[in-house]
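Appendix B, record 7
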Amino acid sequence: MPLDPSSILLTDRVAVVTGGGSGIGRGIANGFRTFGAKVAVWERHADTATAAVDVRDATEVDAALARTVAELGPVSILVNNAGGVFNSPLLETTENGWDALYRSNLRHVILCTQRVARVMVEHQLTGSIMSVTSIEGVRAAPGYAAYAAAKAGVINYTKTAALELAEHGIRVNALAPDITWTEGLASIAPDPDGQQERFGLTVPMGRAGHVDEMAGAAIFLASDLSSYVTGQTIHVDGGTHAASGWYHHPDDRRYVLGPS
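Structure tokens (predicted):
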């Protein structure tokens, strides 16, 4: 199949982006629109969403999907981006806390993937499903064990879903960011300039990522350019995953491993 510049376009395809009202999700939704897709944002906050929906709730997901199909057409692209995190040390984690992190970061991935995939199969559409996981899904995360476990679950679920849906022409992949500069991160950073300098030490490429860089990877996975890519997790992280603990020394920026 010869390459064609139009292979990157998403013209008239219907995409759903969960948690797309801000941050990475909004960046991906805007990127999809730029490349021609019709985008439905599923978000709990009605003022930033196409459909105000709690994606952890099956009834609300079914209703939002029915509305999306009725107004835009059958969905052929899904981005499971919704999620949440809070500090929860192992010895202090409650059952309710564990369940909340599971529901926010893994349950909705399973739920939305299943529902949207059924629509693709019903309408005999090939499609692309992707989930936003995290660098914490592949490394230890002290204080965030439940969150990291859920994100690791997203990665493994991606592989299995890819195998089960391959026969229907539906590809399933994941995107794993590390530090990405969003309005949410900026709002909690006590010293934005200092934070940016710290990212330059911990991220091999020397800076935090931008939401548009996540969007670029998502557009690739949604488009025909990735037609033979499935079951993969792409780390859009400036090299953090590859670094495996190596970081720039604050004095001379040489690579060091661990305390020095």
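Remarks on this record: The longest helix spans residues 95-122. Residues 135 and 178 are 5 Å apart (CA to CA).
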